[in-house]
Task: inverse folding
């Protein structure tokens, strides 16, 4: 079946460090891939997405590239800030054209950034 | 529009009681989803509606669970005869699907209802 595996947390970094959170997936067909972020006390928010192979999603300095050959969608940021502290979820859907009929989430990775 | 609204934010109930949660999606969003999230896990899909029609239900949705969206606007999720294993955060999300079946917006999530069964 379809599934998402992301690296275990928590991840603790110093401000301005480079961030990578690994995400790999198993899916039939051609899934769309997403990163969601959950800040403390808030709901899930879409951070970025990619709907086909080799697409790069980007937002707020974060990037992720849809790699079909390695079935991966790793999240990266060149210089993290304290305000990036949150839980990050990788997700996929196989809905038509990226329509999100059913999002499948990874377990989440908690990021803590220290000043 | 203030986004997806869920009520109540917290609910504590005794085992065996029935509970009902409400979700008000973003106006004009035709899709509405329910997810469940337990501690240390990602959200798990429960069910979704296209307007008032319930189109898909996860096997996680036992017969004690029922969801409705009677007029294609707000939705309710009811759990009958609650069990301790039902303790979780219940998330609602909504999105807009275009007439061509392609997405017009991503899924916007509410802040959730945290259920504790004691």
Result:
């Amino acid at each position: 079946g379809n599934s998402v595996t992301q690296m275990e947390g928590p991840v603790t970094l110093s401000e301005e460090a480079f961030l990578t959170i690994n995400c790999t997936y198993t899916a039939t067909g051609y899934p769309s891939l997403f990163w969601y972020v959950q800040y403390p006390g808030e709901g899930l928010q879409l951070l970025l997405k990619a709907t086909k192979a080799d697409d790069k999603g980007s937002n707020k300095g974060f990037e992720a590239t849809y790699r079909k050959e390695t079935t991966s969608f790793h999240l990266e940021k060149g210089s993290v800030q304290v305000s990036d502290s949150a839980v990050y979820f990788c997700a996929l859907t196989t809905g038509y054209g990226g329509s999100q009929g059913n999002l499948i989430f990874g377990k989440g990775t908690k990021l803590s950034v220290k000043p | 529009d203030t986004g997806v609204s869920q009520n109540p934010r917290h609910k504590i109930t005794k085992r065996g009681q029935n509970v009902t949660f409400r979700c008000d999606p973003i106006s004009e969003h035709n899709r509405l989803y329910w997810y469940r999230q337990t501690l240390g896990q990602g959200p798990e899909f429960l069910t979704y509606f296209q307007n008032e029609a319930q189109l898909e239900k996860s096997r996680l949705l036992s017969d004690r669970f029922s969801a409705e969206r009677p007029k294609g606007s707000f939705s309710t999720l009811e759990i009958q005869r609650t069990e301790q294993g039902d303790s979780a955060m219940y998330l609602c999300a909504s999105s807009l699907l275009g007439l061509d079946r392609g997405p017009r917006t991503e899924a916007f999530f509410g802040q959730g209802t945290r259920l504790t069964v004691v």
